[in-house]
Specification:
66% of the residues lie in helices and 8% in strands. It has 345 residues and is of the alpha/beta class.
């Protein structure tokens, strides 16, 4: 008896989900939303190889040998005047392609890099420094070159672009929920569902399922297109499911409060502003100002995704950030839950 009741419960939920999917596949706007993340990922991938095709850029501290500076300026762009090694490392840590060069007391050179620079550019700089140190140059005697990496292993465009795209597109599931609810209201089928032999919990769960599944599908597809086949997809799934909770809640709210599709989409678009602000803030703001972003679940999701892509985030960090995201989602639900219940009545 209990087994039949459980089977009936899931059958009713899947019927609601299947109906929404069938409706979505008939709508041009919904089809575009389903395919958009993959198309944007392909466009981003097309730009990634060209992003690093710049001249060789170097940075050097202000008390460096003048002869070395003049030599490098013949072949590379040289940024001068940095106070000390700490200032040099801070400059190298920015998102552009630039190497730091430090001359040692024994005549050797140390190259400081992030590790994500254009392939082959470090070797070119090594050749230049070796040329400067060759016996044909006055006072030189064959220098040893050492490499210091600051940790990055991928292009900033590929790294940040992937995280931004995955989190930005996580709202598509919520947008489809909103569109489906608006259509139900326009054709007055919500009233029919309320008197049908199906519980409201079945309706809500059935409509929410795509909002959790689509971010995972879009996230996996985007990462694979951008070449992240070796990341921990279990961690990616946990992050995307947690942040999807926000989009589902907002999708239901937009659906029950909007009278036609355009207004529903406009309501959902307003959420893109805090998403973009959270991600760009996490990228460009100094670490001490990140406290201003702690209110945003997308900040914590971005920190998790960034660590996953760099393969530096452990499960402890993922669980901590996910717990914060879910706590913030609960606050959002408390604020909007009554409005959702009234709209589904």
């Amino acid at each position: 008896m209990e087994k039949n009741r459980t089977r009936s419960f899931f059958k009713k939920i899947l019927l609601v989900t299947a109906r929404d999917v069938k409706v979505d596949l008939r709508q041009a706007m919904a089809l575009y939303m389903l395919l958009a993340p993959f198309l944007l990922a392909l466009i981003l991938r097309a730009f990634i190889p060209a992003a690093g095709n710049t001249t060789l850029n170097t940075a050097i501290i202000k008390d460096a040998d003048t002869a070395l500076i003049l030599y490098l300026e013949q072949y590379a762009s040289v940024e001068k005047g940095l106070e000390d090694e700490d200032a040099l490392k801070s400059r190298i840590s920015k998102t552009d392609d630039i190497f730091g060069v430090i001359g040692e007391a024994d005549g050797s050179f140390r190259i400081i890099e992030q590790g994500n620079e254009t392939e082959g550019s470090r070797q070119l700089l090594e050749f230049l420094l070796a040329g400067y140190s060759s016996a044909s140059l006055p006072g030189a005697g064959g220098a040893e070159i050492k490499i210091s990496e600051l940790g990055w292993k991928v292009s900033p465009l590929r790294q940040y672009g992937a995280s931004f795209l995955v989190l930005f597109m996580s709202m598509i599931g919520g947008m489809l929920i909103a569109l489906n609810l608006i259509e139900e209201k326009m054709y007055n089928t919500i009233a029919a569902l309320n008197v049908a032999p199906i519980a409201k919990s079945h309706i809500v769960t059935g409509k929410a399922i795509p909002g959790f599944i689509l971010p995972v599908i879009h996230g996996f597809g985007t990462l694979l297109i951008l070449g992240y086949s070796s990341v921990d997809f279990a961690k990616v799934t946990v992050v995307l499911l947690s942040v999807a909770m926000i989009s589902v809640i907002i999708g239901f709210t937009a659906g029950v409060t909007s009278s036609e599709p355009i207004s529903g989409i406009a309501s959902m678009k307003s959420v893109f502003i805090p998403i973009a602000a959270s991600i760009f803030g996490a990228i460009f703001l100094n670490e001490k100002w990140h406290v201003l972003l702690f209110w945003s679940p997308y900040y914590w999701a971005f920190k998790s995704m960034d660590g996953i892509l760099l393969q530096t985030a452990g499960w402890a960090e993922i669980i901590r950030n996910t717990t914060i995201i879910l706590a913030l989602a609960c606050i959002v639900f408390i604020l909007l839950g009554k409005k959702i219940r009234r709209g589904l009545a």
